[in-house]
Amino acid sequence: MLDAREHTQQAGRVKFSKLILYLFVVGVGLFLVVEVLVRLLFPQPLDPGRTFVVENEIPGLKPKVRYKIDVNQIRGFESTKAKPDGALRILCVGGDSTSTMLQAVGDTWWGQLGAKLEASLGKKVQIGCITALRSSEIIGGAQWIDHVLGEVDGVDLVIAMYGHRAVLSPGVNFRFDPRSIEPIIFESKQGLMFNLASASHVVRLARNAHIKSKRDAQQRQLGKPNHLRDRFTAAGQAFRSITKTTSAPPRATDPRLKYLHGIGVFTEIAKRHGVKLLILGEPTVFSESPSPDAAETLHTPVQIGPENSDFARPASIWVDSELGRYYAAAGKLCEAAAIPFVNLHGAIQPSRDNFYTEATLTDAGALKLAEELLPSVETLLK
């Protein structure tokens, strides 16, 4: 009697196990069928990138700009594709004029430089810039370049242009210790969802839908007419409302140390990846005696006290002097490392015709920068 009951229970367990196995096999089979159908009917890139359209009525700039970046935060060419035979690839990184959303690719200084290089060298030139948020700061830019050079095929030259934010951004409590630099977490290429999306087209479809939803929300904000112009206008008005002026804001550590360390990081990264490097001194409107026209472009105050409200307008002559001090040291550092350095500060007439803000170029200013830079880049690439 007992043996019969045990036999019945064992048979039931076997049937249940077979049922579970059957359901598992059927489930896997259905999933694979769905994967194939989704892959055929709804092909998806691993990451859809980001595309925005911004419209701003600003003198010296085109009113409508299409701003597209890929998974590597690169604007200008599709960095996930192999480099065409015989082509040159150039990556640019820097502050306001490099990653601006106010210009189409063909109107930026680097876009116009690329067109001139194609004409003079007789080769296809793929040139783009890194647009990631922390790339506008010199050490963050170096970290992004290090990451991107590991992801992008065949980069020939890196151009890095920094300056005015390195002078103006540090606060009164600024201290610099290379050991305390925070690494950047490149989220687009990490995490569970990315790994699942790499393996499954169904997950990829869901992930891309989520990315598109976030992108659409950003587009609704950025796509408002004159959204960026109004932000710059408000910043300029707030700047001009500040009554204090300073020629020597207090800093706990000389910020030039961080700027020069950033150049050293760029140099080490370029040598490790076997790419050429060009360091630029950033052009701005700052000078010893700025014209009223140039003064209208200023909008960045400096901190002079511990409170968030303790800000002053930096004297143009002081910023001009500091940029000269930074670039003189950068030139010596680059010379010692056998890295070319081109100081563009003062190379472009500081006027509203050439600058929209203190370091953001108009289309005409970008053309002049490209023309100024062309001989140095031609020499590097020949």
Entry summary:
The chain is α/β, with parallel strands linked by helices.
Q: Residue ranges: pLDDT <50 for 5 or more in a row?
A: none
What is the C-level CATH assignment of the largest domain?
A: Alpha Beta
Total count of helical runs of at least 4 residues: 12
Q: What is the overall shape?
A: elongated
User: Helices and strands, in N-to-C order?
Assistant: HEEEEHHEHEHHHHEHEHEEHEH
Give the beta-strand count.
11
User: Biggest sheet, in brief?
Assistant: 6 strands, mixed
Structural class: alpha/beta
Ends distance: 94 Å
Number of domains: 2
Lateral strand order in the biggest sheet: 3-5-4-6-8-11
CATH 4th-level superfamily of the largest domain: SGNH hydrolase
* CATH level-two architecture of the largest domain: 3-Layer(aba) Sandwich
Mean pLDDT: 87
Specify Rg, calculated over alpha carbons. 27 Å
Multimer state: single chain
Please describe the topology of this protein.
Elements lengths: L1 H40 L8 E6 L8 E6 L4 E2 L12 E7 L1 H4 L9 H13 L3 E6 L7 H12 L7 E6 L1 H5 L23 H8 L1 H22 L4 H15 L3 E2 L9 H18 L2 E6 L10 H4 L6 E2 L7 E4 L1 H21 L4 E3 L19 H19 L1
Parallel strand pairs: 4-5, 4-6, 6-8, 7-10, 8-11
Antiparallel strand pairs: 1-2, 3-5, 9-10
Helix pairs in contact: 3-12, 4-9, 6-7, 9-11
Keywords:
382 residues, alpha/beta, Rossmann fold, 2 domains, 6-stranded mixed beta sheet, 3-stranded mixed beta sheet, 11 strands, elongated
